[in-house]
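Morning. Coffee machine broken again, so started the prediction first thing and wrote up yesterday's gels while waiting. Chain of 379 residues, entered below exactly as on the submission form.
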Amino acid sequence: MTNLALNNSFSPSGPSLADLVDRLATSQTLEPAELAALIEGRDQDLADYLFQKARQARQEHYGAAIYARGLIEFTNHCKNDCYYCGIRASNSKADRYRLTSEEILSCCQAGHELGFRTFVLQGGEDPYYSPEKIAAIVQEIKSRFPDCAITLSVGEKSREDYKLWRAAGAERYLLRHETHNAEHYQKLHPPKMSRDNRLRCLQDLKELGYQVGCGFMVGSPGQTTAHLVEDLLFIKSLGPQMVGIGPFIPHQDTPFAQAKAGSLELTLFLLGLIRLLIPTVLLPATTALGTISPTGREMGVLAGANVVMPNLSPVSVRAKYLLYDNKICLGEEAAECRFCLQNRLAKIGYQLVVHRGDCAQFPVPGAVLASGPAVGLSR
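Came back before lunch.
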């Protein structure tokens, strides 16, 4: 999938770009050169048409429901030194913290009272939290809140660790692949990290029965159209239940501090493409979108996204979990963040839904899917 000859095999005398969008919506696939033609030939009219098709695809499977996930950023310690990340190991300016098990459970309790039925435990690759410690936390959350789904996002681990956490009750795992291209991957990560190990992790997670999420940064340093096409083709072949993409935003204390930020416009376009590639996918309108534009998350929803992730972390640590500069919602309490998003989504015709919200192609016995009622639509 490397060294794609993208621009030589698409003929301008062939189908129009709108025709390609139609074919993608119908068949959920395109040739590499056709995907590249859409990306490179996009304009506002084409984007509007793509978004219309993406909304139709999402409507078919999820209606007007936008799923809320309660995000708990429980540690900003990380043993890795990824060049783009504000909590990289060598950033001596980072103000480090760790939440205790009881603090994590307190976040879950507050979220449960607000109606959340999915908790996302996200953190750096912090050796302090042993596999057994994480398993114990997952088990306790499941014991106290049996009606809730648990998503982990703690990086590259062994198959044995993933198996342990699956047995403990974790159902979903988010692990952005960042870029499928091995050469580009090494431009973003230190030598001890590899694209192949990242892909091994994703395959292990799939085989162990997790609902799996992958994804990438849009506009990361050195990224090309060929890389984006490679990412899209990889996502299609992996068949994940979740895909998280967001614009690259530089952090002042990283090697990429002076790099150009990713494009809102291109990120939205890629959201639309991903929705048509995998119509049932759970697709977040990320905080990074809201960071680069005041209405970025709403625009993400209108481009085909159907997930938002309000922050349940204690306000006292929010400003310390900075993967990039100028992150939004650092001072909002969980309830404030949740109801703010609910009201903003209602203004564009969507309902914030706080039940489990499993992938339409990954139903869980007894779980309420998109047809279920929205919870707590008023204060």
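Residues 30-353 form a domain with the TIM Barrel fold (CATH 3.20.20.70). Going to sketch it on the whiteboard this afternoon.
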